[in-house]
Specification:
Blueprint lengths: L2 H12 L7 E5 L3 H4 L8 H7 L8 E4 L18 E5 L1 E3 L18 E3 L3 H6 L4 E8 L4 H21 L2 E8 L11 H14 L3 E4 L7 H14 L4 E4 L6 H13 L4 E4 L1 H4 L4 H13 L6
Parallel strand pairs: 1-2, 1-10, 2-3, 3-6, 6-7, 7-8, 8-9, 9-10
Antiparallel strand pairs: 4-5
Helix pairs in contact: 1-5, 6-7, 8-10
C-alpha cells in the first residue's frame, strides 16, 4: 500500500467517478476579504454551512473548521477541502496592484502534513504567474511544486488556481490563450484539479468557448470558478455551459452560499453537473 491509494480515494470525494465531475463549495472567502455576506458573524457561519451538505466537497479554512466540524462527519458528508493560502489580491485595502502593494504575494498557512493529520481530502493553492519581479514568480512556482510533492507523499488531492499577477494591468492577462497557458503550467507542476476563472471575451459565448480551450488544453480536470453572486438563473446557465464546454464541474462559492436557498441551489447544480439522480 502507498499514498497513491489514499489520493485516489480522496479524489473520488471531490470528483465523482461515475460522472467525472464534481461540485465544490468555496466557503473560505473571509481569509481573503474579511467579513462577507452570509459569513459576517460566527452565527451566520454556523447557519450557512449545514446548508452546503449536498455538495461533493466544501472548502473552508483552518480557523473556521472547528466551528463547522459536524458538516464533515457521518455518512454522506461532503469532502473536506482546505484553503491553503493567504494572499493580498482580494482584500478591500492595501490591495496588490495598487500604490501600497504593487506586487502581490501569497503564503501557505499550513503544511500538508498538518492537513493530513486533521482528515483533509484536498487543499487549494493559488499560483500567480507573470510578476514584474521574476523572483516572486519563481517563489510561486517553487511553493506550488513543493505542495504537489507533499500531496503526493501524503496522499492528498491538490487543487491549483492559477492567476495572472498582472491581471489589473495587462488587458490580455485573462485572454483564453493565456488562461490555457496558466492552467497547463498548474497541471504540469502536479495539480490533480485545476480551478479556472472564465476567460475574458466580447460575449458570454466567446468566454465559454475560451473556457473550452482551457479545459481541452489541460492534462488535469478543469473546474470553473464562480465569482460574485448573480441571480440563480444566471448561475445555472453558466454551470450548464461550462459542462458542455468540457469542464469537470464547479468550484462555486458566493453563487451558492449567498443564494437565497443554498441547499436548493446545490441540488439544482447537481442535476446539471451530474445529471438526474437516476443518471448519476
Amino acid at each position: 500500500m502507498d499514498s497513491h491509494l489514499g489520493k485516489t480515494i480522496r479524489m473520488s470525494r471531490l470528483i465523482r467517478p461515475s460522472t467525472g465531475r464534481g461540485i465544490i463549495v468555496a466557503a473560505s472567502h473571509p481569509i481573503l476579504t474579511g467579513p462577507i455576506d452570509a459569513q459576517r458573524t460566527l452565527a451566520e457561519v454556523k447557519e450557512v454551512f449545514p446548508k452546503l451538505r449536498g455538495a461533493d466537497a466544501v472548502m473552508t479554512t483552518p480557523g473556521t473548521l472547528p466551528h463547522v466540524l459536524s458538516l464533515y462527519q457521518g455518512r454522506n458528508a461532503p469532502g473536506l477541502v482546505m484553503h491553503m493560502d493567504w494572499m493580498n489580491w482580494y482584500r478591500p485595502f492595501y490591495q496588490a496592484g495598487g500604490r501600497e502593494a504593487a506586487e502581490g504575494t501569497a503564503v501557505s498557512i499550513a503544511t500538508v502534513e498538518e492537513l493530513a493529520q486533521c482528515g483533509v481530502d484536498g487543499l487549494m493553492s493559488y499560483l500567480y504567474l507573470g510578476h514584474e519581479d521574476t523572483r516572486l514568480e519563481r517563489d510561486e512556482v517553487e511553493r506550488n511544486a513543493r505542495l504537489a510533492r507533499d500531496c503526493d507523499r501524503w496522499g492528498l488531492a491538490l487543487i491549483i488556481e492559477p492567476q495572472p499577477a498582472q491581471g489589473g494591468r495587462d488587458p490580455d492577462a485573462r485572454a483564453p490563450e493565456q488562461m490555457a497557458f496558466y492552467a497547463r503550467v498548474a497541471a504540469e507542476i502536479g495539480a490533480d484539479i485545476v480551478k479556472s476563472d472564465l476567460p475574458e471575451g466580447p460575449t458570454l459565448n466567446a468566454r465559454i468557448d475560451g473556457f473550452g480551450l482551457v479545459a481541452s488544453s489541460c492534462t488535469a480536470p478543469v473546474m470553473l470558478a464562480g465569482g460574485p453572486m448573480e441571480n440563480d438563473e444566471q448561475t445555472m446557465q453558466l454551470a450548464a455551459a461550462s459542462v458542455r464546454a468540457g469542464g469537470a464541474g464547479l468550484v462555486f462559492g458566493r453563487k451558492i452560499y449567498q443564494s437565497p436557498d443554498p441547499a436548493a441551489m446545490i441540488t439544482a447544480l447537481s442535476d446539471v453537473v451530474h445529471g438526474s439522480p437516476d443518471e448519476s
